[in-house]
Amino acid sequence: MEFVTMALWLSGWIALAVLIPKPSACDYGSCHAVQASIVVAAVEWALFAFTNVYAFLDVANSRRTRRHHHDQHQHQHQQPAVSQVNPSGDV
């Protein structure tokens, strides 16, 4: 879900950046404010993408570790065969 959000955020950022005028054509304060907000949004998107990669790696690693731990846990709790419990046959 985060990757979809990231893609939509990036497309919205690009659409907004295309609509504003060039810095040389900006003569009023609100235009400069929009340009500054676009720069801040780009930095924010880059940070979001960076943390998103680490979140994805953490989820992938936890699934692999959980599967390995589950297999190891089942292997430790297997019941021994009857011949292994009393190999000599003494009662």
From TrEMBL:
This is MARVEL domain-containing protein. It comes from the Eukaryota. InterPro entries: Marvel. It is found in: Membrane. Coiled coil: none annotated. Residues 1-25 form the signal peptide. It is a multi-pass membrane protein. Residues 65-91 are annotated as: Disordered. Residues 1-51 form the MARVEL domain. The chain crosses the membrane at residues 36-57. Residues 80-91 have a biased composition (Polar residues).
